[in-house]
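INFO  loader      accepted 1 record
INFO  loader      residues=368
INFO  predictor   begin
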Amino acid sequence: MNVNGIHYRTIWPRKDNPQIIEIIDQRYLPHSFIIEPLKTPGDFATAIRDMHVRGAGLIGAAAAYGMYCAALHAPLKNPEAYLQEAARKLIDTRPTAKNLSWAVARQLRAIEGISGREERIRKTYETARRVADEDADFCRRIGEHGLQLIRDISTRKKGEPVNILTHCNAGWLAFVDYGSATAPIYAAHRENIPVHVWVDETRPWNQGTKLTAWEMGQEGIAHTLIADNTGGHLMQHAMVDLVIVGSDRTTRTGDVANKIGTYLKALAAKDNNVPFYVALPSSTIDWDLRDGLREIPIENRSGDEVKYVTGLSQDNKLTTVLCGLAETPASNYAFDVTPARLVSGIITERGIAAASEGSLLQLFPEFA
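INFO  predictor   done
INFO  writer      dumping tokens
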């Protein structure tokens, strides 16, 4: 998407040296736009774990490039063990996002049986590029399929702005390009359909405040930042026409794991007859899982992320402050699971499915 009118992806090989992979370091947005080079397998693990990059699709692409980097650094003696250890370290960084383990497994399959170093490097680079390109293309197609939902609401409202509520950041910053939940919004905007986005702040990392609102501003889309607990009130007063969120892992039966607080938005939407859609590329679906509440691993991050907040100080410096007492215990579950019964539909690169095994398999029969 665009940054000051210039197109960027979220991850790419450096033009003059493809052994260095560059990312947009999201920790500094929206106040600073910083490009960070990743040069070692450890750099990739740190970038994923410490939220330099985040979001399902981007984590997957970063992991794929991380395995390419591991192939570059693998020793001549017993490289397979080195690559397996690199894979384990990458997977351990963020346990909930399916795209991460999916991308690592895809790389390991790609180099299975390859003994030559140069061929292994070539294959992992080629696979990483393909993972990134597919992610961008799938998100573009998600936008095309989701556009009809917004178009229909716009028609019913006789051209009045369509009010869409988002949670967390499932924009292009969470993927390689376009985003999942934002892709239909961008598609509608390009068709000159008036849209307005309610942007949840999304504590504790404030991805809505720092990322989604910034994206909307860069694209010139009308938006309003709200506190996380405002969505229910807006729905009660008919100020939300549609909720679209992303997903970090979805079961074959349509249960959806997404940023903590998504479940509460789904409950409010159900109570107020507001359609609640989840947008995701098929790489996010875990076809081995059926019961999201019991089977999806939920990441529990440091409580310091709840107690401390980082923002711009009056002297224009990024500053981290303690909001409460340092000794106060804090729990930080990063995701929750929205049961399929609360989901109006799942927008994928192949079309929109009901949140059910049968409907998903109609779009993806190869997983039956």
